User: Which sequence fits this backbone?
């Protein structure tokens, strides 16, 4: 490769970096001030591109190409303001992360709305007038439009810096980013500030999308692919740091461009396809950065929020609760006989129980341990693949493989946990995501061993378990056993230590609890239980593919936990059952089932900000007059 | 802690009970990723509906009406298998069909094998569905990755280009297309050399970097497997950067309206592609299909339309031959089943259950800002198969 080739590849990287920065800057601002994990940011980016397509198509003859294109930005900003004022404002006082659930629902709704408005076909916009061609650069043709993009990134960075440093509004935003409560206490109108920041961030996402019009078609998969990249950039750069986001966008884009440029490296008789690293390049970068710099490139250790909602302590169950638990278990155990005429009930029930166990394992680490995991599917997937590979490659009996599944998952959790517990908050969450994506990438690429993107087939249960009703009973015992076991752990001395570590790490250390070790062990336990769920899943389906450990499954698990209520122990079980059942039912009832599912989740979020079980619990506490009801 | 599971029990009890309908119609259970791949599957669904209407208007199959039940698998195999269970146990469908993504097609094929239930894989392209993971109960309609690649290789060899670059989406479809292409082209033209390989993640092509890396390798010709949004980005970037100037491009599936039409005025000239030139086919069987489709939908058909339509017609033909819809009878009837498709005659091969439905190979042309295929001919899928010995070695007996 010649030096000039490398140089031009670096320029390509710069153009991609600018595109990435537009989306990431908005996300970073929004997160910095509102602390919302905004999944819908990618949807606004996608909408920006679609809208720009239509605006240019309709109005460029009248008002010119550029005004039509740029109009998409303010329109998205308006939409963002509406979303913030009408929806998110209602859930700011819910427990942490619940806003995430609202934005997840928005993703579903926006996706279906876009499909309805613009149709399924990809829409490729026109080239930019005047910049449609290429210029000669080092003997190569380089798109003129990319030069514009390269310039726009630093321009945006400069404008945002001016805005944040030189205006009163910027001062308020910085104050709120640093200490939201203090800014509020000093009389800053938070509602207005949040709305304006959200609108600005959304406008930047919309502009970022619109600016892609001359480069790529508007398509329905842009939302999720762009939001993933944007999150990585924001976290690598350091949360809330706009210059950090710019640096991170540069770093990631250049790493990718170089991977592509290197192509396949030959040496020592081996061919190393470096270009295939682009599959997970951003996550590799993120993992390395976070391990080396726990707050990202330019982030600071967050000031511990002094009014983190302390949860009411967990209550051991009374006799009434225990009795009803036994009744429910017995009812479930008799389900195969109760539903003799409707065999699908047991089929679906297996899926519901697997989801419930998976959600319970995520909740264990997310709720009582306070370690948010965005990559929990990794352990589910390791369990599933571990079990499947032991049966297919090692020839183990299915029963033994199922028992070994949690070990595979726990090993993975042990490896990641060691790194993860050294971080906190969203950084920790994103490191778990990076780990999950790297495991996913290896599984996806390793054709000879894991079956690559096609996955593995022929993973069926042993003959005596082949009957769905017997398999259901196995799943029920494993799920009930797992959930009961997790609960026992929570009320053991270890569980108390874990909860104490969440509520005050300092005091814990002072009384001699090794918080890191406790949290590490919590990771291993949660991973192991997720592995049981993964093993059960593999044998119930007969085949698995890398999506069992994909982002989608991790997000589903988060949704289940939040839907049920993160501060209750049975919440995740209920959330998992309701979410999976809803998906199954809604998908059969209408073509636009994603929008309907999103709508239902939005309603649930607005009606039960503490989660469904959290709502029930608070209602019961209020009736009985127990103190501390609604631990907010 | 389990108290809220009361609610669960109630919910479980509410799950659809088996419909106690009389089993008069023949029920076809169809599973697909409608929401994940709408660009292909909306026309596909229209094709299916048209076929069902035609069959029922003509009195049904063996005197019974045909009823189509579709399920969305949300793009993942786990949900697809659950939908299959639901269709079989709740709706009591007679056959299963569908699948778009390869991993879902393979999961359904393995499910069919385990349950000994008939499954027609209408769309998934992976070679494994009839070979490595092939089984008695699974048949596949569309020409496989291998077949479509093999159709392009003779054309590629005719170019007599020595230095080739390949670009493909990084998953099984792209990998196996490129492997087949390399293997067959080497056999046809031993001096050929592969000088660059780019495998961007599906749907996340960094077009600028990839196009430049390909150009820097100075290939004489390019084999492309990208499709969808990746293809549009690749073509626009390649046009701007002059990647295609003085270079031949051989490109899989690019002549299909699903992928060619969105390119609009970027549509390249002179690419050798597989595809479906619906605007130019004059055979009576295609004219009949085109007239019916346009009459019904006021839209032109895509490849998806043909696949959906033909899959239903194939099931009907099989059921007529089997004089019923029981799996074992259908399996027997489908082996060697002859049928008429909008593309012409085809049959399901006895040795691997692959249909011999073919594809059109031709060149692209930018016709006033719209991509079309020219100089095309129909290649019968029966001619683009490995030898029977190879097939029997690949396919578990």
Assistant:
């Amino acid at each position: 490769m010649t030096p000039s080739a490398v140089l031009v590849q670096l320029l390509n990287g710069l153009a991609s970096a600018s595109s990435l920065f537009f989306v990431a800057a908005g996300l970073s601002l929004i997160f910095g001030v509102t602390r919302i994990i905004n999944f819908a940011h990618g949807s606004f980016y996608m909408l920006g591109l679609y809208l720009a397509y239509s605006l240019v198509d309709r109005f460029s003859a009248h008002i010119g190409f550029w005004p039509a294109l740029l109009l998409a930005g303010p329109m998205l900003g308006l939409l963002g303001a509406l979303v913030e004022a009408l929806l998110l404002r209602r859930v700011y006082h819910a427990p942490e992360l619940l806003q995430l659930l609202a934005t997840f629902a928005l993703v579903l709704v926006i996706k279906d709305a876009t499909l309805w408005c613009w149709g399924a076909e990809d829409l490729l916009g026109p080239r930019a007038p005047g910049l449609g061609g290429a210029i000669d650069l080092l003997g190569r043709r380089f798109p003129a439009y990319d030069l514009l993009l390269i310039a726009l990134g630093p321009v945006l960075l400069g404008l945002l810096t001016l805005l944040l440093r030189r205006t009163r509004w910027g001062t308020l935003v910085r104050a709120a980013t640093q200490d939201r409560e203090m800014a509020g206490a000093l009389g800053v109108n938070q509602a207005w500030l949040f709305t304006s920041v959200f609108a600005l961030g959304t406008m930047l996402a919309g502009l970022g999308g619109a600016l892609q019009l001359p480069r790529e078609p508007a398509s329905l998969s842009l939302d999720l692919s762009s939001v993933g990249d944007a999150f990585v950039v924001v976290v690598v750069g350091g949360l809330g740091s706009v210059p950090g986001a710019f640096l991170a966008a540069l770093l990631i884009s250049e790493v990718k461009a170089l991977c592509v440029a290197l192509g396949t490296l030959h040496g020592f008789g081996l061919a190393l396809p470096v270009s295939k690293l682009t599959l997970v390049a951003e996550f590799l970068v993120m993992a390395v950065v976070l391990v080396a710099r726990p707050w990202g490139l330019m982030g600071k250790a967050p000031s511990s929020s002094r009014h983190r909602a302390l949860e009411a302590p967990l209550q051991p169950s009374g006799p009434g609760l225990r009795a009803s638990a036994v009744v429910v278990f017995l009812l479930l155990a008799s389900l195969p006989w109760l539903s003799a005429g409707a065999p699908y009930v047991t089929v679906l029930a297996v899926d519901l129980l697997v989801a419930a166990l998976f959600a319970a394992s995520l909740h264990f680490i997310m709720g009582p341990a306070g370690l948010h995991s965005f990559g929990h599917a990794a352990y589910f997937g390791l369990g599933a693949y571990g079990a499947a590979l032991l049966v297919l490659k090692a020839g183990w009996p299915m029963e033994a493989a199922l028992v070994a599944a949690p070990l595979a998952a726990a090993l993975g959790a042990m490896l990641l946990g060691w790194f993860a517990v050294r971080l906190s908050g969203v950084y920790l969450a994103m490191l778990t995501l990076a780990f999950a994506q790297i495991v996913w990438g290896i599984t996806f690429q390793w054709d000879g061993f894991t079956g690559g993107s096609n996955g593995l087939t022929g993973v069926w249960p042993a003959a005596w378990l082949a009957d769905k009703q017997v398999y259901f009973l196995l799943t029920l015992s494993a799920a009930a056993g797992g959930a009961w076991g997790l609960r026992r752990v929570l009320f053991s001395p270890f569980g108390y230590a874990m909860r104490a570590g969440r509520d005050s790490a300092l005091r814990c250390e002072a009384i001699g609890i090794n918080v890191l070790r406790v949290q590490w062990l919590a990771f291993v336990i949660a991973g192991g239980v997720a592995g049981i769920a993964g093993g059960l899943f593999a044998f119930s389906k007969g085949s698995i593919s890398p999506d069992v450990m994909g982002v989608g499954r991790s997000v589903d698990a988060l949704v289940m936990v939040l839907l049920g209520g993160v501060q209750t122990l049975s919440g995740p079980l209920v959330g998992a059952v309701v979410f999976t059942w809803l998906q199954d039912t809604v998908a059969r009832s209408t073509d636009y089932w994603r929008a309907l599912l999103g709508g239902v989740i939005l309603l649930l979020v607005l009606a039960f900000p503490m989660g469904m079980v959290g709502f029930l619990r608070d209602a019961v506490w209020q009736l009985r007059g127990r103190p501390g009801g609604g631990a907010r | 802690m389990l108290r809220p599971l009361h609610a669960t029990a109630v919910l479980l009890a509410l799950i659809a009970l088996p419909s106690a309908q009389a089993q008069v119609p023949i029920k076809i259970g169809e599973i697909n990723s409608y929401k994940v791949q709408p660009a292909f599957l909306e026309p596909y669904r229209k094709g299916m509906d048209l076929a069902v209407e035609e069959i029922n208007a003509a009195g049904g199959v063996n005197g019974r009406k045909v009823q189509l039940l579709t399920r969305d698998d949300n793009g993942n195999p786990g949900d697809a298998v659950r939908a299959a269970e639901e269709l079989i146990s709740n709706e009591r469908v007679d056959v299963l069909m569908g699948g778009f993504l390869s991993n879902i097609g393979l999961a359904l094929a393995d499910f069919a094998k385990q349950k000994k239930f008939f499954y027609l894989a209408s769309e998934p392209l992976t070679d494994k569905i009839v070979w490595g993971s092939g089984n008695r109960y699974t048949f596949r309609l569309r020409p496989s990755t291998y077949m479509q690649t093999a159709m392009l290789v003779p054309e590629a060899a005719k170019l007599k280009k020595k230095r080739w670059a390949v670009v493909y989406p990084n998953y099984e479809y792209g990998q196996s297309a490129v492997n087949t292409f390399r293997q067959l082209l080497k056999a046809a033209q031993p001096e050929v050399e592969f000088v660059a390989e780019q495998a961007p993640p599906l749907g996340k092509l960094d077009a600028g970097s990839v196009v430049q890396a390909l150009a820097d390798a100075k290939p004489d010709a390019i084999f492309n497997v990208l499709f969808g949004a990746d293809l549009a980005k690749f073509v626009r970037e390649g046009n701007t950067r002059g990647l295609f100037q003085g270079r031949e491009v051989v490109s899989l599936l690019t002549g299909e309206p699903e992928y060619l039409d969105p390119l609009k005025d970027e549509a390249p000239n002179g690419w050798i592609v597989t595809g479906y030139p619906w605007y130019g086919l004059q055979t009576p069987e295609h004219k009949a299909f085109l007239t019916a489709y346009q009459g019904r939908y006021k839209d032109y058909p895509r490849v998806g339309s043909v696949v959906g339509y033909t899959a239903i017609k194939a099931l009907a033909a099989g059921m007529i031959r089997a004089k019923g819809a029981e799996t074992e009878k259908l399996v027997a009837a489908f082996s060697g089943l002859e049928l008429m498709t909008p593309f012409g005659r085809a049959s399901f091969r006895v040795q691997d259950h692959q249909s011999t439905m073919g594809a059109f190979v031709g060149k692209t042309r930018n016709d006033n800002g719209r991509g079309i295929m020219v100089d095309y001919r129909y290649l019968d899928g029966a001619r683009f198969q490995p030898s029977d010995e190879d097939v029997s070695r690949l396919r578990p007996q």
